[in-house]
Amino acid sequence: MLxxxxxxxxxxxxxxxxxxxxxxxxxxxxxxxxxxLSAQETAQVRxxxxxxxxxxxxxxxxxxxxxxxxxxxxxxxxAWWPADFEKDMSLRRAESxxxxxxxxxxxxxxxxxxxxxxxxxxxGMGSSDPIVVNLRxxxxxxxxxxxxxxxxxxxxxxxxxxxxx
Length: 165
Known about the structure:
36% of the residues lie in helices and 16% in strands. With 165 residues, it is α/β, with parallel strands linked by helices. Strands 1, 2, 3, 4 and 5 form a five-stranded mixed beta sheet that branches.
């Protein structure tokens, strides 16, 4: 997991060099809603939310979650398709992943106020950075239709009392 202290000095290339904390890649063609995820992948996102919630009372609490959505190349629609379509679909996927994550986080905390303690950002990446470059079948395309979650943590020191008697 990335530390929030080092976040300021990271470039986009540095962030992509980090391993995501959770990847959901089972979106059907042209689907972006969380409801289109399998039960197993929805459970993965929920488990991540539980893990993040548990860090909030630790020495290295999560401070932010970056959700990156990706789309595969729109091969079936031809070159005339608007270039913004892939970007828009990937943003919808990122936002749906963020919604599933936040809903579970609120459930864990018992109140929506938990969302003030943790910054969640959804970003659509379009068809950039594919997992599978030479697509052979639908399974390869599904790997590129994904949402990646990156949890950013920050080390904090325990409070101390400097009063001497």
